[in-house]
Amino acid sequence: MKLYKILIVLIAMICLxxxxxxxxxxxxxxxxxxxxSVEIVNAYYDSNNLLVIDVVRTINQVDIEELLxxxxxxxFTILIGxxxxxxxxxxxxxxxxxxxxxxNNSILKYNFIDESMTQDDIYTPKEFEDFILKWKQx
Length: 138
Prior knowledge:
The protein has one domain (about 20-135). The chain is built from four helices and eight strands, in the order H-E-H-E-E-H-E-E-E-E-E-H. By secondary structure, the protein is α+β, with helices and mostly antiparallel strands. The termini are far apart.
């Protein structure tokens, strides 16, 4: 019986630590100072498991600030758990030293300097889908 209690406590601890999440929003001032261009893209992996990024729309310089204001209002949740696959319409934020692709389930960060790519799995609210639709069509 003591073994069952220990096992139950151990399982509960694993579940609680594996299901953590962190909420965040992009900082508007940082975006304004670091972003050089923004695109709406369709990102997916091909049959060779290589990331393909098709540009759907390049946001003109006049509209970038408005887009960044809209984007900075969205609250994302970073998830810890099963890795997600980037697929579908996304926002590509270009910086001097790399880019980020924010999709409905992940954020891919690529650094030109060391050619590294990292991924955070996220939960996006409906506001992100609405945001993509708005900026894809304007």
